[in-house]
Amino acid sequence: xxxxxxxxxxxxFRNGKIDEEALCKVIDSQFAAGLQxxxxxxxxxxxxxxxxxxxxxxIQLSVEYTRGxxxxxxxxxxxxxxxxxxLTQAAEKxxxxxxxxxxPYYNKPTQEGLFRHFKAIAESTKLPIMLYxxxxxxxxxxxxxxxxxxxxxxxxxxxxxxxxxTTERVSQMRISLPGTFEILSGDDSMTLPFMSVGAxxxxxxxxxxxPREMSHLVQAARQGKWDEARRVHETYYPLFAxxxxxxTNPIPIKTAMALKGICGDELRLPLCEMDAxxxxxxxxTLQKLRIL
Length: 292
Fold this sequence. Notes:
The chain is an alpha/beta fold. The protein is about 50% helix and about 15% strand. The protein has a single domain (about 5-220), classed as Aldolase class I (TIM Barrel).
């Protein structure tokens, strides 16, 4: 269901409000490049600084602007189970095709707590669910034993977005989980390594800027054209590395998109703009890759 390339889209802002025109432009660019889906209201979409009304509005607009051209995988996770259920049900009502549910952050539940959290959400909706493990931001990892339990007991939990993991962990998941359970990379730089051991695609940040190239990488890997996939990976690895090194996501991708003229670089506190020297470094990388 989720095999392919999905973009964790930015939420463009203008003067403190959602820039709906720019959001439409971003979404159109993804499907024009042949991507399989968009993921609004994730980490890259600055979901922690969206109020409830804005959160629901971004998902609603994403459904409207996608116009059935691909999947809308709505970010509806929270560290409150009740809140995550409400957001997921609102996304279902808005017409989203699936939900992305991040591991609860800050309160650091046990693995049993994680299991009950995700199970409660899964039972509250008919939407297919992609779990999201990103221990660098959440402080916890969704354990493989927990994934096995969830896959067995929740038929609408279909996949996981794996961020900050290793090829060893992906290999362990692949041999422990049903063949129908899909693993996607949550890190652009790990897309090729993860796919080499069983992942089926990526939820990409870089695709906001280079959707066609990310789609090419994933399609080549899925077709077993590993030399071609590696060529794309090696070409754009400096960009993946810059996004990780220069500042916290989504600061670098928004800055790059502004340099390209796709949307503004406005962020919401506590995120703020990059130092001028770092912007210069990012611009040099984009020019070297002929993105600018």
